[in-house]
Design a protein that fits this description.
There is one protein chain. The chain is 74% helix and 3% strand. It has eleven helices and two strands, in the order ααααααααββααα. The longest helix has 37 residues, at 2-38. It has a domain at 122-226: Alpha Horseshoe (Serine Threonine Protein Phosphatase 5, Tetratricopeptide repeat). It has 232 residues and is mostly helical.
Length: 232
């Protein structure tokens, strides 16, 4: 008889727990949806965090990491989904890891994620990101491969946004690739390749006269060329 009573109590406790869990799910689903209506990003993150604890799923985890990344909280995004590369990761997860790792200057780790993105869905935007990262790592051969891919496949209507100036600005992505080609060319031989590098930068400026980064780089190279040789 005691065993029967104990089993009934256990069954009732599981039932109550399930009911409480469902009530919490309904509460946080309502909270999450209301935060979205109000445009409260932190509220949305809080609501989704509770939902993921109560009923974990890869989709919730990826969405939570995306919200953090989109809000500029790259470390928090990586804390949600990690930094390691897994073949089972969703495309969203790989992109979040790539962008977040690049944003916190973890270049080598970011390269792995961007290469995986490029393997899954090759495209000129990812090629540009890879070329930039390879230049930072002084892997000019791989950077050049991605630039050539970009120049071969880029369309005239594709744009790239730059943020180094006081106001962000856009230029055609083709100009961006020509800029990178100029930087690679210069770094391949900093003494002999100044003219060739300047030529690519001028091609970029011909397409995008407002390309501040290309203009500044061209001016720096020309200034370096004009410096008189040091004499003993």
């Amino acid at each position: 008889m005691k065993k029967i009573i104990l089993l009934v109590c256990i069954a009732m406790s599981f039932s109550l727990s399930a009911q409480n869990n469902q009530e919490l799910l309904k509460h946080f689903e309502a909270y999450y949806n209301q935060m979205k209506v109000q445009g409260d990003i932190q509220g949305v993150i809080n609501g989704l965090t509770h939902l993921n604890i109560l009923e974990p799923s890869e989709a919730k985890q990826d969405t939570l990491a995306f919200l953090y990344m989109n809000d500029g909280k790259f470390v928090q995004a990586l804390n949600v989904i990690g930094v390691d590369l897994y073949a089972t990761d969703s495309d969203m997860a790989v992109e979040i890891k790539a962008v977040s790792l690049k944003s916190i200057n973890q270049t080598k780790l970011a390269l792995k994620q961007f290469e995986e993105l490029f393997r899954r869905t090759p495209g000129v935007s990812i090629a540009y990101e890879l070329a930039e990262l390879y230049i930072q790592e002084q892997n000019l051969a791989e950077a050049s491969k991605k630039v050539e891919y970009g120049l071969l496949h880029v369309k005239d209507d594709m744009k790239k946004t730059y943020y180094e100036a006081r106001q962000p600005y856009q230029v055609p992505l083709k100009a961006g690739f020509l800029y990178l080609k100029g930087i690679i060319t210069f770094n391949e031989n900093k003494d002999a390749n100044i003219d060739a590098a300047v030529s690519y930068l001028e091609q970029a400026l011909a397409i995008a006269p407002n390309f501040n980064l290309a203009f500044a780089s061209r001016s720096a190279l020309l200034g370096q060329k004009e410096q008189p040789e040091k004499t003993d």
